[in-house]
Task: structure prediction
Amino acid sequence: PSARAVSVFIGSFAMKTIVYVDGFNLYYGALKGTAYRWLDLARFCQIMLPRDDIRQIKYFTALVTPRPTNPDQATRQQTYLRALQTIPNLQIIYGHFLSHEITMPLAPPRSGYAKVIKTEEKGSDVNIAVHLLSDGFRNAYDAAVVVSNDSDLLPPIKFVKEELGKLVGILNPQKHPSVVLAATAHFVKNIRKGVLAKSQFPATLTDTAGSFTKPTSWSWAVFERPPYPTVVSQDWWNDFYMRKRNLTFRVHLTAQRTHPANASPQCPL
Result:
């Protein structure tokens, strides 16, 4: 099948479409570290599939927990999920995280092994498969569009296409589309930065609980200097300090590799 950008549109009638969003695949493939994390999925789908009759958007994710290195990540996620819930035809389906102890080799030049805690997101691929098949059997869609590059989704996508006779498309959030998904889907569209930039929620949103705003740190990319606010809060300084410390570490490593004798830990901010 062709991988060129096409619309799920036949003649003068738009096909009824459900969009299935793999939240973590989208985040790590196209959003992490960018200024586009405040993504309005309704607007995003309108731009990517401009002539389709989008009946529903299903967003698959799992709730994160605070970590010492990223204590505010759960709060930011909850704020974003609250924003998504302002979209009338969007449903959030939750998986879960599973943590377990594993033994891994130490990085060279050290030898030996160490026990570490590995945390993995579980359930999203299974949940997507279940909804994709269930909705297909119920004729809830004529076309299914999957926002993911996870090749584990090949079996349900192939079944929906070949056994149910449905049209299936992929919106790829990563640099290169999965070969097996591209070979099976009716079409593949790569997600571009320009589309993400045009698909942002307003900075302030309102729901039944009141008004809320986009997380401050989501207004700029990771290696971009954050704007100085009129009133500087402790949270702003904490976030700025963490960014400066991380950038200092990266600059110091680069200096050591390039000019070991002149290496300096000073950050060029």
Observations:
- The longest helix spans residues 234-258.
- The chain has two domains: 9-213, 225-262.
